[in-house]
Structure formats: structure tokens, C-alpha cells
Amino acid sequence: MKAIIIDDERLARTELKKLLQDYPEVEVIDEAANADEGISKIESLNPDLVFLDIQMPGKTGFDMLEQLEKAPQVIFTTAYDEFALKAFEVNALDYLVKPVEPKRLADAIHKLQAIEQKETRAEGEYTNNSILSENDQVFVKDGERCWFVKLSEIRLFESVGNYAKVFFGTNKPLILKSLNALEERLDEKTFFRANRKHIVNLRMVEKIEPYFNGGLLLDLAGGEKIEVSRRQTVKFKEMMSL
């Protein structure tokens, strides 16, 4: 597996390369000190994996990924905890907080190996279609704002045209994903398609009430009230043994 390290700190690149010597399946073929250099090397060398710093002079790691036509697997490296998560939009595999701990690197490499075994690769294009568990973290970007958030903290996805509104805490950012695309990657044991417009986190349901026309009304932890369609009510009752 060919890898490139992109980080503006030379010592950080050197330390990561040293840690990766314990993983002969990962071959570091090059490194870059900024986003523009990283884009050039990714396009010319076509690596399988990129270790990518987030905060770099000029452009961030997020900015860099948005400029790529085809992105390899990405493991973020960052000095900031608040940047920690996996991605719907950029398909980030994992994140490592610097200084990188050997155990966290091992976890990320094992996760990569598991995904590599499952996913299919269409000519030069990398995809990550594995089912995300509630313990996985996702990257949510809305305009200039970015979040790393565990799926277990997301209580609701709401369809808004070609976008989806993501409800977690007091935040409701939009992501460029259809509800159908999200449903394919979410664990159906945790996330339930209540109706045409909503996917709810079953662990965030605080109250269930009978509703109009044979449906149900779900009260979520954030105060939202979501109607379960009559058709989905049958499935819901089967799942919940009601």
C-alpha cells in the first residue's frame, strides 16, 4: 500500500515515518510540506493512502481534499482534538492526534485493512462503502464550519432537497448527501428511516406515541417530534417488538 505524508512539520513527518516502519504493508513513497505540494504528488504518484495534517500554512487539509478529483484513503493527523473524525464528504478513514500514539496508529491501520478487504475499487477511483457503526466519527462541513462528531451523538438526519440536515447538540449543519445515500452507510439497528424525509437515531428516542392514520410519533432527545409513516410503523414495531 503506497502512502504519502503531508504535514508542514518536518519532525512530525519523520516521527510518523519511523512509526510506520512497523507496518511493512504501508510503503511511504513521498512526503509534502503543504497542500499545493501534496496535491501535485497525489496526482502524479496516485497513492493508496495519505496521512494528512489539517492545519497548514496557506490551505488546510480540508481545502486540499476539496481540490482533488480522486482522493485516496485519508487518515488525518492533527494537534487539535476538535478536528477528530471520519468523513462522509471526504471519506476520511480516521484521525490521529499528534504526537501520534503507536496504539492509535495500529487501530487506524487495522481499520484501513478491514475496509480494503471489503470495498471494491473501480478503475483508479477509491470508494468507502462500509457500514458505519455508532462509534464511528464523521466529518461534517457546512460552509466555513467543520465538526468531527460521533454518529452516536447524531439524533436525526432530515432531507432538504439534495442535502441533508444533521442534528447533533445545538447544531444543524447541511451536508451534500441524499438521505438514500446516508441510509446505505448507516447501521439499521441504530438509525431508522422513519419516513421519506427523516432518519432517526433510535437511541435518541425518548417517547413513542400513537399518531394519525395508524402511524407513530417519536419524541427525540433534542425536542424534535418525528412522524413514522404507516408503512414504516409496521417495520418499527417489528424491530422494537411492540
Briefly, what is this?
This protein is an alpha/beta fold and 242 residues long. It is built from 6 helices and 15 strands. The protein folds into 2 domains: 2-118, Rossmann fold; 153-240, Beta Barrel (OB fold (Dihydrolipoamide Acetyltransferase, E2P)).
What this model shows, in words?
The chain is an alpha/beta fold and 242 residues long. It has two domains: 117 residues, 3-Layer(aba) Sandwich (Rossmann fold); 88 residues, OB fold (Dihydrolipoamide Acetyltransferase, E2P), CATH 2.40.50.1020. 26% of the residues lie in helices and 32% in strands. Strands 2-1-3-4-5 form a five-stranded parallel beta sheet, sandwiched between helices.
Oligomer: single chain
Biggest sheet, in brief? 5 strands, parallel
Kindly give the count of domains: 2
The general outline is: elongated
The mean pLDDT is 85
User: What is the fold named in CATH at topology level of the largest domain?
Assistant: Rossmann fold
